[in-house]
Backbone:
């Protein structure tokens, strides 16, 4: 992988645009992925998964008294851009023979974790360089910060509530809580966010450090998606081997999504994406291939 990674230093990756098949600047990469476009049934599957996660979260975070707590949490949770990690959690659960209801709480928790990280990254602090991705700021930065901090334990609480003695899933739920806590910690997503902020300070420098792919993309999007794959397999009753394969698959999916988000349609990114895609698909070769078709779309196109 090192040989392919070295090519990134010879490219100009300044673009921060998200991948879009409708953006003419991204035609080279778009054409490659359009050739792997999702079937109508695949699109319907991912749409239904995202819709059910949204419904679950809407019920979990109703706008009710005290409004000072629930209104900003509801608003900010849904205002953050979506990530494919929650949907991957559901798909991984179903791939190992589970039902999506078994992983719905974990998927919702992952959505909240992502929203929390997004809010922390985009707090309007004047010492951060450059123009950052922003959203409609209905609440002040103090409320945003407190709400983002509260989303993490609330997400874990949602997952803990899914403990059902009738399903004998206590050990699996506890294992998923540990997975999410570790993924969001100082050696996971939080480290990736810190590394990204440190890297942004040198955006104007010539060239691009190779470590970005491992220390930002791998730690941030990669860790979140690896956690999603593992949690889905755990809650679906997968074996240890299946859990580790879907953890690795999620890692590669997250890194691909991270490259899309950072580089957009930069032609140089295609080499990295292709290599990560090949590694990801190798992790799925021992699963039921009829079920693999849908989940594999996560590395073949951007589904969000």
Residues:
């Amino acid at each position: 992988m090192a040989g392919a990674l070295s090519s990134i230093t010879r490219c100009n990756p300044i673009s921060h645009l998200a991948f879009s098949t409708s953006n003419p600047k991204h035609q080279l990469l778009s054409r490659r992925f359009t050739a792997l476009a999702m079937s109508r049934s695949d699109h319907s599957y991912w749409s239904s998964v995202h819709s059910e996660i949204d419904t679950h979260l809407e019920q979990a975070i109703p706008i009710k008294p005290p409004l000072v707590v629930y209104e900003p949490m509801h608003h900010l949770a849904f205002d953050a851009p979506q990530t494919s990690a929650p949907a991957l959690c559901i798909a991984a659960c179903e791939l190992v023979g589970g039902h999506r209801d078994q992983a719905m709480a974990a998927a919702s928790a992952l959505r909240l974790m992502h929203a929390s990280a997004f809010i922390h990254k985009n707090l309007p602090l004047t010492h951060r360089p450059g123009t950052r991705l922003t959203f409609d700021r209905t609440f002040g930065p103090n409320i945003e910060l407190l709400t983002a901090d509260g989303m993490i334990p609330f997400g874990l609480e949602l997952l803990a509530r899914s403990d059902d003695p009738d399903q004998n899933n206590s050990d699996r739920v506890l294992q998923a809580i540990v997975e999410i806590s570790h993924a969001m910690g100082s050696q996971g997503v939080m480290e990736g966010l810190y590394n990204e902020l440190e890297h942004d300070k040198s955006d104007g420098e010539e060239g691009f450090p190779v470590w970005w792919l491992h220390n930002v993309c791998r730690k941030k999007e990669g860790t979140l998606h690896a956690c999603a794959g593992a949690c889905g397999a755990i809650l679906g009753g997968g074996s240890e081997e299946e859990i580790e394969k879907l953890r690795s698959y999620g890692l590669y999916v997250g890194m691909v999504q991270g490259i899309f988000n950072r580089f957009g349609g930069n032609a140089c990114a295609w080499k990295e994406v292709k290599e990560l895609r090949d590694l990801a698909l190798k992790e799925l070769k021992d699963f039921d291939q009829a079920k693999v078709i849908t989940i594999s779309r996560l590395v073949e196109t951007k589904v969000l």
